[in-house]
């Protein structure tokens, strides 16, 4: 299972290179994209992605500095101390392009012979366990 997971991680990293994104940065954009109003506080992102505050801040800066400006930073109207991020229109376009490549990569991985073999092994283990 670790080999399959590692293989998927490597494929994702390679597929995101042309977008200059890591898988975690992609998840960061995905989280913002999925929000009702396409915005969230740094704290919400930190908790959702289970990252440190420093890691979230570094990623936010890295994404803000990209040429397409996928996100913007602002302070909450309700709490001026709360830092929030919003995905921009160009960020949505950027995310959708990267997302299509990620979807293709994941579909290839989960329709591979390697995945079928792993799934069969897991199912066989589950059957043996439930028979005991």
Radius of gyration: 18 Å
Indicate the CATH architecture: Orthogonal Bundle
Cα separation of the termini:
23 Å
* Helix proportion: 55-70%
Strand tally, please? 3
**What is the averaged pLDDT score?**
87
Q: What is the helix/strand order?
A: HHEHHEEHH
Instruction: Tell me, briefly, the overall form.
Output: elongated
CATH topology: Arc Repressor Mutant, subunit A
Alpha-beta classification? mainly alpha
Give the tally of structural domains. 1
Strand order of the largest sheet: 1-3-2
Instruction: Flag low-confidence runs.
Output: none
List its salient traits.
three-stranded antiparallel β-sheet; elongated; 3 strands; Arc Repressor Mutant, subunit A; 132 residues
Structure description:
This protein is mostly helical and 132 residues long. The chain has one domain: Arc Repressor Mutant, subunit A (Orthogonal Bundle). Helix content is 67%, strand content 10%. It contains six helices and three strands. It has helices spanning 2-16, 23-34, 42-49, 53-64, 89-110, 113-131, and strands spanning 39-41, 71-75, 83-87. The protein has a three-stranded antiparallel sheet with strand order 1-3-2. A hairpin with a 7-residue loop joins β2 and β3. α1 (2-16) runs antiparallel to α5 (89-110). The longest helix has 22 residues, at 89-110. The mean pLDDT is 87.
How are the secondary structure elements laid out?
Elements: H1 2-16, H2 23-34, E1 39-41, H3 42-49, H4 53-64, E2 71-75, E3 83-87, H5 89-110, H6 113-131
Antiparallel strand pairs: 1-3, 2-3
Helix pairs in contact: 1-5, 2-5, 3-4
